[in-house]
Design a protein that fits this description.
The structure is a single chain. The protein is an alpha+beta fold. The protein has helices at about 1-15, 40-60, and strands at about 20, 30, 60-64. It has a 3-stranded antiparallel beta sheet with strand order 2-1-3, with helices on one face.
């Protein structure tokens, strides 16, 4: 439910919040953000962030 609300909010305002990840082994951080211009293609931007987040989660990184 919470993710649905975030996606809906992103679609309505045209913005997608960046997500920060940390590697628990090294402490290194990474950010998933969208390259699409805000307000132009919010669904595409959310897809980019989600795919990035899935990649880091598969590698064992944790969301901050």
């Amino acid at each position: 439910m919470g993710k649905t609300i975030l996606v809906l909010a992103g679609v309505l305002c045209g913005c997608v919040p960046a997500q920060i990840f940390r590697d628990p082994a090294t402490g290194q951080t990474a950010q998933c953000s969208a390259s699409s211009p805000p307000g132009l293609f919010p669904i595409v931007a959310q897809w980019e962030v989600d795919k990035c987040a899935e990649t880091y989660e598969r590698m064992g990184w944790r969301r901050q």
